[in-house]
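User: Quick one: structure for sequence A, then sequence B.

Assistant: Sequence A:
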Amino acid sequence: MVISFTASNFGLVLADDSVETEPGDLEPIDRIGVAEPLVFNETVFNLAWTAHPDETYYAQEYLPEGEDVETFDQMLAVHVFLRDIKPKKAVEQKAKELNKRGKKDPVCKYAIWSNPDKMEFIIDFMVGESENNISTLVEFDIYRYKEIHLDNGKKALMVLMYCKRGYRPNIRPFFKWLADTRMDLIDKMTTMEIPVVTIAE
């Protein structure tokens, strides 16, 4: 069910982390028990980048073999928040951030989806960057928000993310690709098996 679709802004999980990420570990450290490769859209993604900026937030990014965190073509990520944040509230926060960005990013659009019981939400969005009014980067993201239960019985918010980028001079083909595959990717994110998170105390 589509809840909204408006011109809007870029992306982080709860704020704005899509293009610029905070400094991570020098080498990836699996802190959430998801070290094994993840598979999405018939592509294998390996753990490539991790961060644990505070005691309530864990971030792990996964890339196909041969890709780099700075210039990747596509990425999967798992973000875990040990906070009392409901998926609906988190996706609304993301939409608010995107609406703000949309005032200066003409590429930005988003749509919000939910399952029938409103326990999971997905937001897919488009953002871009430019230099001298020439588009240099476009990015398509799908974020799936779900409340999970940890081994200690506590609740947490998981955000499962997929990101696909197009770089100049291949911006136009990227938009064609997106038009052809967007809904299929959203369907695959909706049905993707959620990784089991285990956080060491």
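Sequence B:
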Amino acid sequence: FAGADTLATAYALSMGIRKIGAYDLIICGKQATDGDTAQVGPSLAEKLGIPHATYVRKITGIGDGRIQCQRLTDDGYDDIELTLPALITVVKEINEPRLPSLKGMMRAKKAEVAVWTADDVGADKAQCGLQGSPTQVIQTFVPVHDVQSEMFEGTPEEQARKLTDRLLSMHFMKAGE
């Protein structure tokens, strides 16, 4: 599955989940640290044909085939409800992880983790990994933000006129607005 973009990753995960069988809730992180796209969770839900919600900060209730949760927005949060089975992507505020006990760490160290291949989950190899990825990352970088500021001198009226002229020249507004 190496080299997979978000589409191929969602496909591979959907095939693995189908192999597992029945489920009520799939919980994904908000985004991966490598691609930072936040697309795998919603794409996975679409491949499985189930409802989904992103940026969930709190589960407020679950039962009777439904889940209620709070989804972060730019202005706070929305209270939403989904029919199960469903998928949610969560933000770090959802939980404060507890430290594992020594006994739990030892048990985890001895646990066998199943590793499945495309054949194991019945996946079309042409849709997996780099071969199944319509996009390929050529380069990743942190964008440089060139911030400039300008101070306007004069009376408040003169400053307002200069600001208006600057916004007009930059096409951020039109004359008469």
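Helices lie at 6-20, 40-48, 102-110, 118-121, 156-169. The radius of gyration is 24 Å.

User: Thanks, that's what I needed.
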